[in-house]
Specification:
heterodimer; A: mainly beta; B: mainly beta; 7-stranded mixed β-sheet; 4-stranded antiparallel β-sheet
Chain lengths: ~110, ~120
């Protein structure tokens, strides 16, 4: 079963708008990571947030983590057509070594 | 720098045939992961290795699947005999095992079609 569930499953926005994707998980975690997957390609790591962190930034990306609600959000500001991809959250659970458990992903389309 | 290299990129074969997927991790990485991605089940971890040793193979669907890592720079995932339901994209990923706050680096996958 999947640890993380993304919401929404699909999102379509205009270039320049912000995109927000949410992720919920079920068990206690060591860290949570976000990945991007372009069509026909492998996943690319975007950002990692540790369980004792609440917010992290990387360029146009902003990630928040609320461990009390077991949820995270990924915000992409000033979106570009090149941001069109699927976005996945993944967690490392406290009792699972360095195994990542992925959610089902959000398909983001940014229209030029 | 070379990333994770997988071969072949595409494989089409008839059911019952043996399929071997190959992966070369990033040099210096000592964790290697095999995943399967389908529309129905999403991204599933099949097996992972630390320092060439299999740590967790609970995601391997059946005895028809086997994985080896004979050295730090090469791993194979074998399906024998293959079935149509094995059709999927198979990804290999590698990372450093130091600590647990390490990202995984993915190859571009092998798209497998079993007819």
């Amino acid at each position: 079963s999947q640890q993380g569930e993304e919401d929404p499953q699909a999102l379509s926005i205009q270039e320049g708008e912000n995109a927000t994707m949410n992720c919920s998980y079920k068990t206690s975690i060591n860290n949570l990571q976000w990945y991007r997957q372009n069509s026909g390609r492998g996943l690319v790591h975007l950002i990692l947030i540790r369980s004792n962190e609440r917010e992290k930034h990387s360029g146009r990306l902003r990630v928040t983590l609320d461990t009390s609600k077991k949820s995270s959000s990924l915000l992409i500001t000033a979106s570009r057509a090149a941001d069109t991809a699927s976005y996945f959250c993944a967690t490392i659970q406290n009792n699972a070594g360095n195994m990542l458990t992925f959610g089902g992903g959000t398909r983001l389309m940014v229209k030029p | 720098d070379a990333g994770v290299i997988q071969s072949p990129r595409h494989e089409v074969t008839e059911m019952g045939q043996e399929v071997t997927l190959r992966c070369k991790p990033i040099s210096g990485h000592n964790s290697l992961f095999w995943y399967r991605q389908t529309m129905m089940r999403g991204l599933e971890l099949l097996i992972y290795f630390n320092n060439n040793v299999p740590i967790d193979d609970s995601g391997m669907p059946e005895d028809r699947f086997s994985a080896k890592m004979p050295n730090a720079s090469f791993s194979t995932l074998k399906i024998q005999p293959s079935e149509p339901r094995d059709s999927a994209v198979y990804f290999c990923a590698s990372s450093l095992v130091v600590g647990r706050n390490q990202p995984q680096h993915f190859g571009d996958g092998t798209r497998l079609s079993i007819l």
